[in-house]
Amino acid sequence: MNAVAPVAADDSPSRLDHLAEIARQLLQRCRARGASQAEVQCSEERGLSVDVRMGAVETVESTRDRGIAVTVYFGRRKGSASTADLRVDSLDATVDQACAIARHTQDDPAAGLADAALMAQPPAGGFPEFDAWHPWALEPDRAIDLALTCEAAGREHPRIANSDGASVGSSASLGVYANSHGFLGRERSTQHTIGCALIAGHGEAMQRDGWYTTALAADDLEAAVAVGRRAAERTAARLQPRSLATGQMPVLFAAEVARSLIGHLVGAVSGGALYRKASFLVDAAGTRLFPDWFAIDELPFLMRGFRSAAFDAEGVATRQAPLVRDGVLQRYVLGSYSARKLGLATTANAGGVHNLQVAANAGPLADLLRGMGRGLLVTELMGQGVNAVTGDYSRGAAGFMVEDGQLAYPVDGITVAGNLKAMFGAIEAVGSDVDPRSHIRTGSILVGAMTVAGAD
């Protein structure tokens, strides 16, 4: 844990009030120009980031960004414009530009706000924040000290020869969404990160790896020293890698890369891919994709969840709901536009999913290794070799060969290949070793058989 300095007086409520008032004024301007519907998004972000390398400071950056986005509808014609300038004449010009665009576009039967009846209704006291607001009074000198401490701890390892650097970052974001249904929602959240990347070995034998910690509250971060040491251990463990003979074997995706498999599922069942027929899971709702024990739940009300929210990007009330239950895909991931294109109802996922939890049916990583006997543990994936239309999967990988349930030696220069639909069906276990650094919460995932191609 890292010592957290006391925070100065919190001005976020007044800043949110200011953004909310801007949103109300912009909606009035849209109505005055004849728009039948309108929506406004106002955001503001402040942040600090520091990068060091080899004991020296490389960058210190303080940021303060804001954005205003206006969307208007004239019937089924849509126009959008944005600005970062809060002067009255700039806001007027932004509304005028959005209206001009709408008047020159064609009717789109799926265009328009989400249905008014679906808008989230705030309880007394306003929408809950799900413990997402934890500002860190991080001064540049303190951030530099943390980054230097992190890198120094990693460089103490005897097999570390060089460094790609360490970084510390902290940000605080405010957002307001309002529309002509009368909905106005406010959100605020923070996120903090410490990371380190190191190099072991020399010349062509060099290996690079790292580690990072990220959380909404600085108290939840791993200590800077622990991050540096773990980065060093991961990097040193990759020295003297081998390739493998091409063949079929079980592949265990470590938790930090396993979430990418769930990300491919989400992409394939998202509305945009479905209505464009650009997904290998078109018409898959209600069909079995996974073993009968497999389950994924969406948890939008998770305390300190990275994507917790009471409403989606269109103001629709979120709800806890299964995505996969008993191995069967229960639904798609839809906003109102894609839902209309498909003749379905929104699933309150405009803007994405809100915290996915993959149910475990096994113990920690060590148990999974013992259970697989011989196979490949993947700790890094490279490249973009995934065909969203067919589901064909082929990615560069690195990790460790597993023999007799134990890590035997590092491997790289290999490719793991298969088809996502077949891979989903071949999942044999999900570990309890959940990686908490993402809104997709999963442990390691064991796929019973994949093609592993190497140089040998």
UniProtKB/TrEMBL annotation:
It comes from the Bacteria. Residues 246-454 form the Metalloprotease TldD/E C-terminal domain. One of its GO terms (molecular function) is metallopeptidase activity. Residues 134-239 form the Metalloprotease TldD/E central domain. InterPro entries: Metalloprtase-TldD/E_C, Metalloprtase-TldD/E_cen_dom, Metalloprtase-TldD/E_N, PmbA, TldD/PmbA_N, TldD/PmbA_sf. GO terms for cellular component: cytosol. GO terms for biological process: proteolysis. The keyword Cell cycle does not apply. Keywords: Hydrolase, Metalloprotease, Protease. It holds the Pfam family PmbA_TldD_3rd. Coiled coil: none annotated. Residues 38-102 form the Metalloprotease TldD/E N-terminal domain. SUPFAM superfamilies: Putative modulator of DNA gyrase, PmbA/TldD. Belongs to the peptidase U62 family. This is Metalloprotease PmbA. The gene is pmbA.
